[in-house]
Amino acid sequence: MKRVATWTILIWVAVSGMHAVKAGRVADGQAPPQRTQSPSTDGKLNIIAFGAHPDDCDQRAGGTAAKYAALGHRVRFVSVTNGDAGHQTEGGGALAARRRAEAREAGRRIGIDYVVLDNHDGELLPTLAVREQIIRQIRLWNADLVLAPRPNDYHPDHRYTGILVQDAAYMVVVPNVTPDTPALRKNPVFMYFEDGFQKPDPFRPDVAVSIDEVIEKKIDMMDAHVSQMYEWLPWVAGALESVPKDATGRRRWLRETRAAQPTAAVKAMLAKWYGPEKGNAVRYAEAFEICEYGTRPDQAMIQKLFPFLPK
Ligand SMILES: [Zn+2]
Question: What is the bridge-based pairing of β-strands 207-210 and 285-294?
Fold first, then answer.
């Protein structure tokens, strides 16, 4: 009798262990994402953002993430590729390891979680396998709000990240899809990052967030991506000589070159959410457009999802 009970326990431990590994399936050796508490039990939001490369989310939503983190909400950034191609002198596994470490450090600097999925940089396709990775991430994070690029972009990895998240936007609630990870009962709100592409449609912001008081945090975050900000991006732009050598000069240079002024459309949204006077005075902002898939938020839900907007 005792032997039977011991075997039962051993088998149960083995099976549940296998299930945990499969459900997490972060193929680059990181620990599987932990299930978070539902916002209904502690009043905190679960925000997840997807970018193609380990610095994309930072540039589009790093300031907003810092604001969530400061209020105790949970934010996870996910890079769908491992960044193992975009560099002029490095590549492969060594570059992927460097990029993963930079992403982790960027997350640490503002108090958010950062996951890098192990898909090759420059080769991302909207396959069923990657869609399932995205579905698992959204479910395990128990997301209230999902941020992602729009599917119109010069870079195929960015474009397909947008498609992959769109393709997950309904499937996260379907129990028979990716059944190794329990389906969400409530579809999150999905929103797009800002971009400058005009065709077929320009970005139309629905929410604009002032990040003036956290701009240094955002710069901190971008500064952690040394191989991107100070090596690859300036090299590919033919401007490697313009990168300052000293730490203070580099941060100033990042602020000057990577923190753009709000566009007219974003300014109009700032005026809507903050009032004309306060909105006009905003120097740095991040803006988001509601995706037509997933839950469509009304004004009250937007206020809830962006708790730092003035009431
Ligand atoms: Zn990118």
Answer: antiparallel
